[in-house]
Amino acid sequence: MKSTNIEKEYILGLDIDRINCSATLFKQSRVVAHVEEERFIRIKRAPNRFPINAIKYCLSLVPEGLNSIAAINLGFDHEMFTYEVPMYFLEEWSKYPSKPPEAINFEQKYLNQKHPRLIRDLIVDELSKADLIKVGVPPIYEYTHHYCHALCAHITSPFDKSLGIVVDGNSELDTYSVWDCDNTRLTKLFSKQLPHSLGW
């Protein structure tokens, strides 16, 4: 996990996807707190919400709120998705010209929602509306979705070393992958990419 300020030990991890949005507070590589937005708004899976209440809770656990955060980490590489995945949609549209327009519209909308500039603007706007920005916004970093799945499973396990297997058809390019997990160092051993998927 990247941190640009060695005096700030905390990292804020965000999941801001369409469902199950959440916030996680790390102190270096240790999980301090994790909470989903649905716990505050009492709506199952919190569809199409931003996890602002989850963020507020995590920031309440550190001395100076957002100013204590060295970085904001996202578990999805929006740039990779925006600029590399569309070719798979285009290929599928050419193969299936009778594909329902509703499906095509959904895919186009999904691509637009993932644009990295819009994602960063959304984060800054929501933090600003909640009056959480006192000095500035920490740097925002993005990590591939499968890497984050493997890391999450590993660092919350009782093992220093493990083999991580991720099967998730809705990431950037990888659909399933295998990882060598050694403390906080993860190395991808194998992966299959789009369009080969169990669920894409």
Summarize the structure.
With 200 residues, the chain is α/β, with parallel strands linked by helices. It has three domains: 1-76 and 115-143, ATPase, nucleotide binding domain (Nucleotidyltransferase, domain 5, 2-Layer Sandwich), CATH 3.30.420.40; 80-111, no CATH class; 145-200, no CATH class. It has helices at 38-41, 52-59, 78-84, 86-95, 101-113, 116-129, 145-155, and strands at 10-15, 22-27, 30-36, 69-74, 140-142, 161-167, 174-182, 185-193.
Description of the molecule:
With 200 residues, this protein is of the alpha/beta class. It folds into 3 domains: 1-76 and 115-143, Nucleotidyltransferase, domain 5 (2-Layer Sandwich), CATH 3.30.420; 80-111, no CATH class; 145-200, no CATH class. The protein has helices at residues 38-41, 52-59, 78-84, 86-95, 101-113, 116-129, 145-155; strands at 10-15, 22-27, 30-36, 69-74, 140-142, 161-167, 174-182, 185-193. It starts with 9 loop residues before the first strand and ends in a 7-residue tail after the last strand. GO terms for molecular function: catalytic activity. InterPro entries: Carbtransf_dom (IPR003696), NodU/CmcH_Carbamoyltrnsfr (IPR051338).
List its traits.
single chain, 200 residues, alpha/beta, Nucleotidyltransferase, domain 5, 3 domains, 7 helices, 34% helix, 26% strand
Continuous helix count: 7
Rg of Cα set: 18 Å
* Class from secondary-structure proportions: alpha/beta
Query: How would you state the average pLDDT, rounded?
Result: 91
What's the number of structural domains?
3
Approximately how much helix is present in the residues?
25-40%
CATH superfamily of the largest domain: ATPase, nucleotide binding domain
Q: What series of H and E elements makes up the topology?
A: EEEHHEHHHHEHEEE
- The number of strands is 8
The biggest sheet amounts to:
5 strands, mixed
Q: Indicate the overall shape.
A: globular
Organism: marine metagenome
Protein name: Carbamoyltransferase domain-containing protein
GO molecular function, one term: catalytic activity
InterPro entries: Carbtransf_dom, NodU/CmcH_Carbamoyltrnsfr
